[in-house]
Amino acid sequence: ASSTIVQGEKRINSELWHACAGPLVSLPPVGSQVVYFPQGHSEQVAVSTQKEADIHIPNYPNLRPHLICTLENVTLHADLETDDVYAQMVLIPTQDPEKETMLLPDVVVQNKQPTEYFCKTLTASDTSTHGGFSIPRRAAEKVFPTLDYTQQPPAQELVARDLHDQDWHFRHIYRGQPRRHLLTTGWSIFISAKRLQAGDAVLFIRDDKGQLLLGIRRANRLQTIMPSSVLSSDSMHIGILAAASHAAQTSSRFTIFYNPRQSPSEFVIPSAKYQKAVYSTQITVGMRFRMMFETEESTVRRYMGTVTGIGDLDPVRWPNSHWRSLKVGWDESTAGERQRRVSLWEIEPLTTPFLICPPPIVLRSKRARGIHAGEDEDLETLMKKS
Amino acid sequence: ASSTIVQGEKRINSELWHACAGPLVSLPPVGSQVVYFPQGHSEQVAVSTQKEADIHIPNYPNLRPHLICTLENVTLHADLETDDVYAQMVLIPTQDPEKETMLLPDVVVQNKQPTEYFCKTLTASDTSTHGGFSIPRRAAEKVFPTLDYTQQPPAQELVARDLHDQDWHFRHIYRGQPRRHLLTTGWSIFISAKRLQAGDAVLFIRDDKGQLLLGIRRANRLQTIMPSSVLSSDSMHIGILAAASHAAQTSSRFTIFYNPRQSPSEFVIPSAKYQKAVYSTQITVGMRFRMMFETEESTVRRYMGTVTGIGDLDPVRWPNSHWRSLKVGWDESTAGERQRRVSLWEIEPLTTPFLICPPPIVLRSKRARGIHAGEDEDLETLMKKS
DNA sequence: CTGTGGGCAACGTGCCGACAA
DNA sequence: TTGTCGGCACGTTGCCCACAG
């Protein structure tokens, strides 16, 4: 359903927001119990400001590495300049920390990726001033209104609405030899207004009312770095801790921003997911696991890895934290970008005995084949979490 | 002198920075003693985020409304997107708060406005794609290299360097009937790259080595508002207080950003200026004063006002603070934009007895004449501060 | 099926002096 | 003195198809 969330007078379309955020991003439902990690919040700020939390940050002895909270409200937003999506969450720390031990029912967090949508990474031709946008055939047929093919050439005007409720007009035409779908008039205005470059991606959605929506996902995330001319990174890191600490001590609400495409990991996790990961699974060094990542085509893919160590990421400031408490190694050599430390709830342990240590030769041969087409599905059927 | 301040590998030209910051902005010298006001810092963040400091912000009982600090370092910066100038200051709270009572020698803070410079607000023609930039005659003759007027038409290529050390090339030509100075080729590239609009201002400087520098001052400051998708404004306000409080208690350095064109008032003041204002002058309700403001032509102008009240701006959270402790009224009816609360060190009290209450009729007649050309100079000669 | 490039027309950009405020 | 305009040339934009990967 195309649910929308009120933000002042504006509503950001939830489907569109999630499409821009990507398939791995899911927000806990309003009213549910969540776990908030100041460490993860700091990591997000560190990425934005390009500065790690410094040493000389004060201790907040009463601030635990995770806070059980009620998610009082979530509002969806998009940066006016870059269209980057982010979510504002209002959290209320739970008064009774004993509740933590209570095992909560598993909340079904539906992944809100829309069905009638497509996403295309822009080519040099798409972004050049020389021409328009080449629509992949399947995409056009699935998402755009059907053309009247009796016309010569078949063409129509499309209107698509972006995250800021701004309408963009495009001429959609089916022509060329061989025939193809193109966006011509209006496309270059859109490209230059959004400052899109080859490598960035656009996505189109047809919602349940037939309204077209469009969003963008920039490739070069480094460009999005904030000026940081407002507050020093030190003060930001301190602000995160002080705000959380104060909220925890007074059981009062506090507000955070979650930037799904900037943040290395989610730092507001459904309580049930956290507890299941922490209390239900025994993780040991040497254990094999899978973990989901987003591919360049904005689909999900699982990578295999092995737990190589268990221990605190920051033993001094954050002892006994589950945040990134696992050191891991990845099977594939292209693991340069992947985190060397992950949290329990991010991984899917392979508990099925005969899969714990697959023969390396098999893995290597599969890697040599290139894309692991069948592998994931095989494991999928074999592995069923309780 | 064209002093520069090192920032990593980059140096921002100090003269250019000050020209962009405006005539009223002066930074205390490195190593000097200053007074830092968390309240003022919060105000700057409030402007940036368009959100005031909320009620439910924790108390920092040990944090006083002003901190005596040593200014350990100042670095000049400019926003990469907007070219907005800002300064990073590293402050170290003074260990012994008793030092405060010690009267310091008056530090001469030279106003670093360059002499060989001009600033022009862009017209519709200047920013249109239809043409170039019309240089005011005086400006061209003062700042640009002299043209060879024997050529027909006289023309030359100018190279001007911006705050990011990027060079911009312009064709400077003297033509038209009547003759005038113009920038043609290269101008529109500059306009679109900096996204300048009519109402924004550009400024050119010739430094002592003959090098041309150029900067911009945007009119629409609302546009510069930061996305704030990084940290909630609450956390920012808390971060300011927590950082200052921690630094004060541990006598350790902390870092702040000062945005001269965003901040309503300076919140890092030379200690001598503060003490002189607080201890040397007796301010009373009804007292007349003058205060400097920047005009649209980026020159200084003094406005007259009367003290209408003295008291805490925020009696609950910041009792006994001198920050904006004066309520004031302004003589001129165009006072809509001017603060209704100012701090002691911002004003110049008129202590000369016969000027305390000038006949209103005289004032009115002067106002009716329009611009107060001579008034300020008359007062200048009459009033000499100790 | 779709990315790139050549061809070509239409439009916008940008340089010029003529006015007039 | 300088802001805006009409005139005009030239360069870019943008629509078309032909190829080829």
UniProtKB/TrEMBL annotation, chains A, B:
Keyword Isomerase found: no
GO function terms (MF aspect): DNA binding
GO cellular component, one term: nucleus
Keywords: Auxin signaling pathway, DNA-binding, Nucleus, Transcription, Transcription regulation
GO biological processes: auxin-activated signaling pathway; regulation of DNA-templated transcription
Presence of keyword Protein biosynthesis: no
Compartments where located: Nucleus
Domain TF-B3: 118-220
Function text: Auxin response factors (ARFs) are transcriptional factors that bind specifically to the DNA sequence 5'-TGTCTC-3' found in the auxin-responsive promoter elements (AuxREs).
Assigned protein family: Belongs to the ARF family.
Oligomeric form and interacting partners: Homodimers and heterodimers.
Name assigned to this protein: Auxin response factor
Originating organism: Physcomitrium patens
Lineage, opening ranks: Eukaryota, Viridiplantae, Streptophyta, Embryophyta, Bryophyta
Boundaries of the shown chain within the full protein: 7 to 392 of 769
